[in-house]
Structure formats: C-alpha cells, structure tokens
C-alpha cells in the first residue's frame, strides 16, 4: 500500500512505542508532524488525510530510532523550554521541565532592574536565554567547557533574538575575568553519581556523560562552583543550583560551611527538592 492515513500511522506508532515510552502516542504525533512539517493540530484536524510512501518510510525510520530509546529531542533536533524552541544535539543535555523551577526561582527573587548574571554550564543556553527573555535589562554571561555546546548556545541565542547574551567557553570560572562580579550566578551542573545504574537505561544513555556525571557521589562540581563563586559574587549576590532530589541536605551543609547565608531549597513540580540558593 503506497499511502496510509495519518490516524493509522499514529496508531501504529503508539503500538510500536508503548513498551519504550510513557508518552507513546505523543511521541508518534511529534515524529509524524516532524516528517510532514505540520503542527500536531494538523494531525488532529485531518486524521484521514493520506500520507505518501516516502513520508511513511521516513516516519517508520524515526520510529525505529525511538524504539531504541533515542530521545525525541535528538531525533528532531529541537526541544521546547520556557515556551522557546531550542535546537539540541548529542553534545548537550536536553532541557528538562524541572529546570524551569530554577528559572522561576531566579525570576521571583530578582526583578526588572539591571542585574549581572552568569549561567555556568549553559549547554543549549536554555537557562540564560529563558532569563534573557524575561529580563531584557540584565547583563548575562553564559559559559560551558564544551566548545560544541558553546556553538549551539550561540546559535540558539541568534535564532531567538538574544544576541546580547555573552556566550563563551570556560571550564567553570577558569576563563572568567578575575575582576568580574555578578549579582546572580546560576548553574545546573552535572550531579549524578558515576555508578548510578540509570545512566545506562532509557533515554539518558544517549546524553553526554560529561553533562550528567560528577565525582564525589555527584557533589564534585557543586563543591568547585560554590567554593569559587563566592569570589565572583557582589556583596549580597545570590548563587542558585539545580540538584538531585536527594542532594538538598548535602548541598545546604556545603553552602553553610563555605559561609553562605540565607540558604533555602525549593521543591519541583513533583514535590522533590530541586533548587537550592544562598546569598554571599
């Protein structure tokens, strides 16, 4: 059969992905809308529309990649974050909904005045560019040690129209000018223990280990950043971290030992501690 309907392909996709995805039908819809270059609303409006053989074969090839747990974002090269479309690649972590809690927390604590902000480990640029979209007067630096990530973040900044965000390569603070001072430092660093069994399961196995794993049971990069950030924060400046749901106590203790004040943790949409912040 050379052609088949949209609804038939969606049903086939759902059937193929049920064992591999918690959102099998949505995954199928996203992949088919990508192949057809149409919004999902088109698929819902025209379920009996015929799909040609070439598009059908392309769709089936993408389904096979998804069956092997390759993330949807890598397959289509894009992920929405903060209602903004971000280009993604296997060199960067895929932006996650929980990270929006980090952005929300920063925005709630800092208004529209002129603030200086540094996003450490920017990846796709998601955090920095989301903040830039809401606070146009802020002066924002975004850094990453991975040159491919830096290039991608710059591409996202250009496509989204936030070209004033200063994006550059640095291994944490190694290339940040020693005289620079920030009102806000924010980071979603690697925080998974390298022996965590989930690293070889499901979608996460496709993501770069360098963006996921830290030594010292996942606390290593928090230690480095927190120790040095205090020297780059203005008086009363704020440091924000996203972290694993079981790391809140350890992170609060670390920040207290290093002399930070006003330490507080925020829960994510599932009721788990996900963001911790403190004041210099």
TrEMBL record:
The keyword Iron-sulfur does not apply. Keywords: Methyltransferase, S-adenosyl-L-methionine, Transferase. Residues 99-195 form the Methyltransferase small domain. This is Release factor glutamine methyltransferase. Methylates the class 1 translation termination release factors RF1/PrfA and RF2/PrfB on the glutamine residue of the universally conserved GGQ motif. It catalyses: L-glutaminyl-[peptide chain release factor] + S-adenosyl-L-methionine = N(5)-methyl-L-glutaminyl-[peptide chain release factor] + S-adenosyl-L-homocysteine + H(+). It is an enzyme of class 2 (transferase). GO terms for biological process: methylation. Residues 9-77 form the Release factor glutamine methyltransferase N-terminal domain. One of its GO terms (molecular function) is peptide chain release factor N(5)-glutamine methyltransferase activity. The gene is prmC. Substrate binds at residues 188-191.
């Amino acid at each position: 059969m050379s052609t088949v309907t949209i609804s038939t392909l969606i049903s086939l996709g759902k059937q193929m992905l049920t064992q591999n995805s918690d959102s099998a039908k949505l995954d199928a819809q996203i992949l088919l809308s990508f192949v057809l270059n149409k919004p999902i609303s088109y698929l819902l409006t025209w379920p009996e529309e015929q799909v040609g053989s070439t598009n059908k074969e392309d769709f089936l090839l993408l389904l096979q990649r998804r069956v092997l747990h390759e993330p949807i974002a890598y397959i289509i090269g894009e992920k929405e974050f903060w209602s903004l479309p971000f280009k993604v690649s296997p060199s960067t972590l895929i932006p996650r909904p929980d990270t929006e809690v980090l952005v929300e927390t920063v925005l709630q604590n800092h208004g529209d005045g002129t603030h200086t902000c540094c996003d450490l480990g920017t990846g796709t640029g998601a955090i920095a560019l989301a903040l830039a979209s809401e606070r146009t007067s802020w002066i924002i630096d975004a850094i990453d040690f991975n040159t491919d990530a830096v290039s991608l973040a710059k591409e996202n900044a250009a496509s989204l129209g936030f070209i004033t965000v200063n994006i550059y390569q640095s291994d944490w603070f190694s290339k940040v000018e020693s005289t620079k001072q920030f009102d806000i430092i924010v980071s979603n660093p690697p925080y998974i223990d390298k022996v965590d069994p989930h690293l070889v399961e499901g979608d996460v196995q496709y993501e770069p280990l360098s963006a996921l794993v830290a030594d010292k049971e996942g606390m290593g990069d928090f230690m480095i950043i927190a120790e040095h950030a205090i020297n780059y924060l203005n008086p009363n400046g704020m440091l924000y971290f996203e972290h694993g749901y079981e790391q809140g106590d350890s992170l609060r203790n670390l920040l207290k030992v290093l002399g930070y004040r006003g330490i507080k943790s925020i829960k994510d949409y599932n009721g788990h501690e996900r963001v911790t912040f403190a004041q210099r």
